[in-house]
Specification:
- This protein is α+β, with helices and mostly antiparallel strands.
- Among the domains are: about 70 residues, no CATH class; about 70 residues, GMP Synthetase, Chain A, domain 3 (2-Layer Sandwich), CATH 3.30.300; about 50 residues, SH3 type barrels, CATH 2.30.30; about 80 residues, no CATH class.
- The protein contains eleven helices and 15 strands.
- The chain has a five-stranded antiparallel β-sheet.
- The protein is elongated and about 145 Å long.
């Protein structure tokens, strides 16, 4: 904690802290202190008190002395000279033709500087004006541009309420004011009625904001549904904020009736104040933190599961896209295979008997019928090469391009599913099929009895 006093230099100005040192200073005394602008004459607005170090702007400057009678007279002389300086500066502004409005002139206590306050719509080039003023007053000159609210604070006036302006009488700092405050207090949004002398929203809208927020929190909104103590339901037509009364439209025997109730006799869902603070113990705060941590971990786990599921789905889609050409070639091969492996009905031998070693006109080779070879070829349709026909050519109806696509697709599937052993087994079976087909071809050629399904397609 630091011992300080509060000093104000202008009417309704900001209060600054200074170190009282060993002086016995009371509220209302005049003191001489050193500021950033030089030596100043101020009035004590707050006596010696202790404040937290965070509220004090460092370095904290000390009080030079308590003002005596001579200091008070010098301050009065400075006020008179300020009026003369204001007239001189106003004449120079007219001579230079500058578009600026002079508001006030101020001397520092030691006459080391003269400050002129003005307003303007934009930037003003007042370099020539400063030279003329410096040649007249023989001291440092400072021109400071201010806003319309600061202008009203310095000049003062009477508000629409008939009282002196708040900013000029007691308001030290300007507070932010918004149109929402007027809505909260159910005021007319006409700018002429809610604007002050400066043309901005009135500062007094901030005075009763908290009170109206608390009163409105207890009341239902217009159009809300409420229930009375008798159990009747109705709709809010209007509210009286200060008296806490609500007018409700109730349906009574096919007719609508307006009744006024105190807010305590109505049941509805109350609104929560934005500034309502929750008083929680350490255990409750720890429990809330634990719940938030669990919720965060649950959300992270859900996101991870979704990402993993999306990866699996993408992998299945890619695998399906790779298999689609092979499946199409397989169907094409199956649709054409029965045509090539169809059992021919060859002619019978004389006497109605088939020649030895034949069935349905087809000769047997090595004790097996070609039907068995055809079924066996269909069973092993995943071989890298198409089974050769009886004449040693390609299978009936099989296009060379389809055969190549089929071979590539089947080779990839065989490597993924069966491995190298299945590939060796298929190769041996293919060699056996070609050997049997070649024997049958030689036997038919020797006997000269080729069936109608033999030969090229």
């Amino acid at each position: 904690m630091v011992r300080v006093i509060g000093v104000r230099f202008r009417t309704a100005g900001k209060i600054y802290f200074f170190d009282p040192l060993g002086f016995e200073i009371k509220k209302g005394d005049h003191v001489i202190v050193e500021t950033a602008r030089g030596i100043e004459f101020g009035t004590v607005m707050a006596g010696i008190m202790e404040v937290e170090e965070e509220k004090v702007v460092q370095p904290l400057k000390p009080v030079i002395r308590i003002a005596n009678q001579r200091d008070v007279e010098q301050e009065a002389d400075n006020r008179d000279k300020e009026k003369q300086a204001f007239k001189i500066c106003l004449e120079k502004i007219r001579e230079h033709g500058l578009e600026m409005k002079l508001i006030d002139a101020e001397y520092t206590f030691d006459n080391n500087k003269v400050l002129f306050y003005f307003t303007a719509d934009g930037r003003i080039d007042f370099r020539e004006l400063v030279k003329d003023l410096a040649s007249i007053f023989k001291t440092r000159i400072e021109l400071r541009q201010i806003g319309v609210r600061d202008e009203t604070k310095i000049v003062g006036g009477i508000g629409i309420c008939g009282r002196p302006l708040c900013c000029h009488s007691y308001l030290a700092d300007f507070v932010p004011v918004s149109i929402k405050m007027a809505k909260e207090q159910n005021l007319s949004l006409n700018p002429a009625k809610i604007s002050g002398v400066c043309g901005r929203l009135m500062c007094c809208l901030k005075n009763e904001e908290e009170t109206y927020e608390e009163l409105n929190r207890r009341l239902p909104g217009i159009g809300d549904s409420v229930t009375t103590e008798e159990g009747q339901k109705g709709t809010v037509q209007s509210v009286n904020v200060l008296r806490q009364l609500v007018k409700v439209v109730i349906d009574a025997e096919d007719e609508k009736e307006i009744k006024e109730y105190p807010v305590e006799k109505l049941h509805f869902r109350r609104r929560h104040s934005k500034k309502e603070k929750m008083e929680l113990s350490k255990e409750e705060l720890q429990e809330l933190e634990r719940l938030e941590e669990e919720e965060w971990q649950r959300q992270e786990q859900e996101l991870a599961n979704k990402a993993e599921e999306a990866q699996r789905q993408n992998a299945r889609n890619r695998q399906g896209n790779r298999r689609q050409p092979g499946q199409h070639s397989n169907e094409e091969h199956r649709s054409q295979k029965p045509e090539a492996g169809r059992r021919p009905n060859g002619p019978r031998a004389e006497g109605g008997q088939r020649p030895q070693g034949q069935r349905n006109g087809t000769p047997r080779q090595n004790g097996r019928h070609p039907e068995e070879d055809s079924r066996q070829a269909q069973h092993h349709d995943r071989t890298p090469q198409q089974t050769e026909g009886p004449s040693g050519g390609q299978g009936a109806g099989q296009h060379p391009g389809n055969r190549r696509r089929h071979d590539n697709r089947r080779r990839q599937d065989r490597n993924r599913q069966n491995g190298q052993n299945q590939e060796n087994h298929d190769s041996n079976q293919n060699g056996k099929n070609r050997y049997d087909n070649r024997n049958r071809h030689e036997a038919r050629h020797a006997e000269g009895q080729a069936g109608p399904g033999d030969g090229q397609a």
